[in-house]
Amino acid sequence: MRGAWLHYCASDAEIETFVEKDLIAPQLAALIDAIEERPEFESKFLSKVKENSSDYKNGHSNCWEICIMWKSINQTQPMPGSST
After folding, report:
1. Burial tier of 25 (Cβ tally within 10 Å: 0-12, 13-18, 19+)
2. What pTM does this model have?
């Protein structure tokens, strides 16, 4: 989640803060909201993963769970940023 937010949403100042202090100020829900404003994430799959996950409380969400959810929700679209 943090990586997607940094890649798609973070300002230069937020990236600098992350690099210097390993700190991302927004909480998980705010990260998801910001990411899902992008057209690549219009399916809201991250929100669906969060709703269906028993362990979503930190920003290091399980990548495999997100990939599996993406495939089940968007059967015809590749995951954003992937080459497949």
Report:
1. exposed
2. 0.60
The closest of 15, 28, 4 to 80, measured between CA atoms, is 4
From CA 38, how far away is CA 42, in angstroms rounded?
7
Average pLDDT over residues 58-76: 58
- Tens of pLDDT, residues 4-60: 899 999 999 999 999 999 999 888 889 999 999 999 888 898 888 777 765 545 555
Contact criterion met (CB below 8 Å) for 62 and 55: yes
Q: Which tokens in the block code for residue 54?
A: 């028993």
d(Cα 23, Cα 14) in Å, to the nearest integer? 9
Interatomic CA distance for residues 70 and 50, integer angstroms: 12
* Backbone φ and ψ of 55, nearest 5°: -135, 70
